[in-house]
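Need C-alpha cells for this chain, all 187 residues.
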Amino acid sequence: MMSKYLNRFCVIITGFFLGTASMANAKTAYLFEFDSIDGGKISLSEYKGDVILVVNTASECGFTRQYTGLQTLWDEFKDDGLVVLGIPSNDFGGQESGSDSQIKSFCEVNFDIDFPMAAKTTVKGRNAHPFYHWISEELGWMAGPKWNFHKYLIARNGTLHESFSSMVSPTSTSLQEQITFLLEQSG
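Here are the C-alpha cells for all 187 residues:
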C-alpha cells in the first residue's frame, strides 16, 4: 500500500519538475525589451529570426576597447542576420557614470558605434533588468555578468545559446565560430 502512494508521489513530483522545466524553456529572449539610448524601446521581438549578441558595456573599463571588435562583428555579420546590442551599465566599478547622451556620444566619437544601444541599465542584483534574471533562470546564477563586456548569444529562435565572459574578445575564434554556427541555422 505504501509503495502505491510513493509511486503516485513520484509521478506527481516528476510531472511538476518536467512541467516547470518546460515552462522555463518556453521563455525566449523575445519577451524582453530595453529602453533605447535614443529614447523609445528596443524590443528583442523586433529581431525575431536574427542571432543576437547582447553585451553589457562601460565607457571607462579596461575592456572598453572591445567596442571596436563589437562594431567589427556588426559590420561583418549584420547583413547575415546578426544583431549586436550594447547594454551600458554602471554596475561594475562605477565605470559607466555618464548620461545616456554622453554614453552615445562617447561610443560614436571614439568607436564609430552604430549598432543598437540600450539606455543605461542595471544588469546585476535584485534590481537587474528582467532579461538578466532570465539568464540566471536559463543558465544558473553563476551565468550572470561578473564584469563589463560579458556577452550572451541568442539563437535565431530566441533561446539562449551561450555565455562568454568579459575575457573573450568579440573577435575571438570561439565567439565567431558560434556566431557563424547560429547564422547557418534556420530560425
